[in-house]
Specification:
By secondary structure, the protein is of the alpha/beta class. It has one domain: Rossmann fold, CATH 3.40.50.620. It is built from ten helices and five strands. The chain has a five-stranded parallel sheet, with helices on both faces. Strand 1, helix 1 and strand 2 form a beta-alpha-beta unit. Helix 1 packs across helix 7. The termini are far apart.
Length: 229
């Protein structure tokens, strides 16, 4: 049997890796799915975790999607009523990321969906509903849930072990920098701290057939931010 930990760079998956190693649980590989849309600070954090993992003589592997976000964004739908039309930003908003399958689960599955593999997932105890509603089979393991490690305990682990991801100082979500599901505070910090990415986000909004979000335009947000609102 081979044991692999799925690592995203967020607090939960970071705590998962630290917990597995500290408790000497079987672990052969830590796998990071690079969406190609990570913040520079995320890559710094990933490198720090990678060095720690490899110092324990554990393999750290990075996987990538078949297409970059730009290739997907400017590409056409391949089926359905929109077949042949440019995709742009995903239309579906909610608690599930519309692009997770393409940018994370698909490349990860090439590593985790092999015979004789157990995949550790970093779902914390406070969000155990995510496990229940997704119908995971017995090839997945959830050490954070099994040990009742919720958000409070997760924060303690990453802080005490020196692996607090600095992105959490500025963003509630630490995933793709251009995600439409970011809240207003996160978008405000994107505008203030990463002006080059903000400028590119406005270009993507203009190019997208249906814009960035249905509830506001980036130019209107920018005016609010300029006036400290």
């Amino acid at each position: 049997m081979k044991y692999i930990a799925s690592f995203s760079g967020g607090h939960d998956s970071t705590a998962l890796v630290l917990f597995l190693i500290k408790n000497k649980m079987p672990l052969d590989c830590v796998c990071f799915a690079d969406t190609t849309l990570e913040f520079p600070l995320m890559y710094d954090h990933v490198k720090k975790v990678k060095n720690f993992v490899e110092n324990q003589s554990i393999i750290f592997e990075t996987v990538y999607p078949k297409q970059t976000f730009e290739q997907w964004f400017y590409g056409d739908f391949t089926k359905g009523e929109k077949k042949g039309k440019m995709r742009g930003f995903p239309l579906q908003y909610g608690k599930h990321c519309h692009l997770r399958g393409h940018f994370k689960w698909s490349p990860l599955s090439k590593i985790t969906h092999r015979k004789g593999v157990i995949c550790y997932l970093g779902i914390n105890y406070d969000e155990k509903w995510r496990k229940d509603e997704s119908n995971y089979d017995d090839t997945y393991s959830f050490p954070l849930i099994d040990n009742k490690l919720g958000k409070k305990e997760i924060l303690q682990i990453v802080t005490q072990e020196g692996f607090f991801n600095p992105l959490y100082k500025y963003f509630k979500r630490t995933g793709c920098w251009c995600c439409p599901q970011q809240n207003i505070d996160s978008l405000r910090n994107l505008y203030k701290l990463f002006p080059d990415k903000w400028a590119y986000l406005k270009k993507l909004e203009k190019d997208s057939p249906h814009g960035f979000r249905s509830d506001f335009k980036l130019k209107d947000l920018e005016e609010r931010f300029k006036n400290n609102k």
